[in-house]
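Priority: low. Protein: UPF0496 protein At2g18630-like. Input follows.
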Amino acid sequence: MGGQSSKGSNSNSNNDVPIPIKMGAHSLYAADLRSYEAACDEDPNLQSFDATIQERTNRVISSLAQGIEVRSISLDSLGEVTGSLLDMNQEVVKMILECKQDIWNKKDRDLFSLVEDFFENSLQTLEFCNALEKCLKRAREKLVVVKSVMTCFEEEVQNGVEGSTYVKTLKGLKDFKETGDPFSEEFYSLFQSVYAQQASMLKKLLIRKQKLDKKLKSLKTLKRVSSAIFVAAFVAVLIFSVVAAAIAAPPVIMALAGALAVPIGSVGKWCNSLFKKYETAIKGQGEVISSMQIGTYISLVDMNNIRVRIEQLEIKIESMLQIADFALGNEDAVKLAIDEIKKKIEIFAEIIETLSVQADQCSRQTRKARTVVVQKIIKYSS
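Result:
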């Protein structure tokens, strides 16, 4: 888009009104205009906006041209100028509001709702880790009982005891059986609840992250606003220049040129600042979301690994309980039963220690994730 005012046809002097602001290819705004034209080529919405601006600008200038031919400006012409500028400003406002609704609407409320859920879920995870440690304490007590059975059996063998006379061994097996399952129904219920919450949280975070990624890829929306503001200001200068030329008042022309050149010159910087703030805000949100994603994912992995180990431990416990039942029901098979339990007791102990390490790791990583998210929030807020 460009414009050029010319001397009146009846001009006979070198003191004719000069062009207040050069709008051609080599003007102060040439780079901005080329950028605007490139944006129009890429953006259908901006093309529509540009068509509207051009139509109104041409209409105004045509109206003013008629006034220039008779060296006067009618009230109708001035009304056309005023109305056109208001219309163009309305077009800019409309575009800004549409983008504002997309960019800023409910942004922080949704984000901090997710943050609150994350911290609540992490507290539940820490509660689960504490519950697991209590279960492992009961499992160790069970391990102590079964080891004492082994000791009793060895002592009775040394004393030449056989069959139903394995009194201490049989009592130990009975005590082992009556200690019960170290993992209660409440523990399994807590596990299912926490795991479901974390899975749901991860899904919400993935959806949110996808939306943020989409916004980062759609930053041309804000570029469209920037271009709209620039061209509206540019057209305002052009029209006011024509008006000034029409009324042949050089002092007014120079005043307008000086006053309007500053706003247009600062429009680019302001738009770039707005664009940068938007991009920084989105990236800041992305960092917070990503840190929560990582923390939630790690918790799910830890809990899944814990679940697998618990299942292995439960299988070992169930197997040893069946062997104890067999020995208690058939006292002649005590020696065979003890030999089978000996094969399983070492693995039983290893699984308990592995679970203890995993519980500690899950707790430490959950606390670390909370710290990282807090740091990201502080950085994003600042």
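The two ends are 40 Å apart (CA to CA). Residues 250-329 form the longest helix (80 residues).
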